[in-house]
Amino acid sequence: MVTLVGDEEIMGDLRRVTKCHLSCVFSDDIYALETTIKMLCKFGQSVGTLEKEGYLFGSELYLQAILVVLLVVTDDVFNNITNALLNFLGKVPMDKRMRNSSLILIDGNDSTELDEQVSTQTTALPNHQSGERRIRCNQERSYHQEGIEDAFEIDDLTISFPAFSGLLTFYRDSPIGANKSQETFLANMFVAVTREANEPVHLLRTKCVLSHLYLKHGDVDKALEECEGIKNMYDHDKQSVELATQYGMDWALICICTMASTYLFRGKLAQAQANIDFLRLQMNRLDEFKSSTKAMSKGNVASYYFRLGEYEKAAEIANGIIATDYGYFFKALGRLQEELANRNVALHVKREFYTGADDDADLLSVLSTDLVIKIRHKRPMLDQSAETLVDTGIDATKAALCECRIRNLDLKHPHDKDTTREQFRYAQAGLVYLKQTLGQTDANNHERRKNYLMGLYQQARLLSWHEKLADSLRDEIRVGDTSDILQIIGDETETARRSLKECEELSFEYGYPYMLMLVGNLYSDLGDIPKGNSLVQRAIGEMGDQNMIRIQQILERHRFRATT
After folding, report:
1. Which of 70, 259, 355, 505 could form a disulfide with 227 if both were Cys (CB 3.0 to 4.6 A apart)?
2. pTM over the 0.70 mark
3. Residue-number span of the structural domain to which 41 is assigned
4. Which of 280, 302, 327 is the last residue of a domain?
């Protein structure tokens, strides 16, 4: 079964390990083996997020933990798990077979040689067209296994759950290359083992996994349905701390927040707000030192309010992220979210905000790197996680901060050529950041599409700024000279229209009227009022007239006014 999940990550020698081997190595001490499994899970958690490309080593550790657990669970548990997975494994019930050695996945043929089975394996995944896949027990060994005591069996399946959860997180957020079959099989195996344990906190985690999995593979309705099940099942006092202890954070709240933005982009404002209200109630009860859930949720909820144009609420909820005196995985994103909320509060009332020189230099530093001319495909796992769990990832948030800086400099008096040059550099930097997020090979997949659509929309806005600022500097900037580092002067209008057109088409295709409304609004602001009004009216028709007050607020607060 494990080869269905990660054939390449499992070393050849490990595939030959049997229950008898483990019994000998651990001197029949099942508690020592359980401690080893827990250590594998802990190591996987630590190297997966902290080390460069640690997800590769972490995924191997998680697979080892899962394999070992499958070898030493009781026969009844093993049969229950495999019977629950017959759609993936074939139609031969596992209780009709002996399970007394390592598990080898083979095609439906008569070969019984272990070496031949191992050497001819591919990256084994379900392929019902090539014949039934079967699980065979390796009977080719030099010692008899009947002497293994029944006592060398694991009763507590929960020790393996962090391995399932961690591996699925790697498959979701890292460039590990897992495909839909691998993820779906692993998720269903996780569901099967948690049902054996029958503990609500673990069943809750599997529902989070399934919700994200459905979203990743385009079944948004089922993703939202699972999310509603999570809300109905969630009990903060009984489950929050346990989720953080077992899985690193309260994934139920993280999932509910991700689905809140999904509801919003689909134009279901009432359902989106219901999720946010649920989250805010729970966040008041979270202990921020138990896990990073509270700090991360603050940033995600702030991003939701930013999408609505409710900047004051965004700033209120994000307050304190930067001051958090401990590091956590998503803090880099949280800092940016808090800064973005505060800057938009000031800009909304046309009040100039002040930043430190270091903040400005950090945003503009990208212009001194090779990212101006190329796309970095090997990004930290944090970048990919952010684009999955939030509607705007790190690069897109930095681009939004660049636009804030342009607008802020517009308030500066007197407004001289030096100010315009500085604005121009921020427009360039913002476009470089967007190039990084939009240029990823999987940027437009289902689970990251919200970030992709927002990136296209932001790109059109920044291209318009770039064009206006370049025109103001036309006496000193020429097409193709050293100041035109992006080589786009003169092409901004056409490129912006292509971005808006793609955003429009994707919003139609996948049912995101919220984005369609923003696109229409920007068309109008850029001069194409008939087209803009048509798109806005279509979006309002899908979102419902009962939301008109909030819709009007969104439209007004996301207006594009380039005054330079």
Report:
1. 259
2. yes
3. 2-137+155-184
4. 327
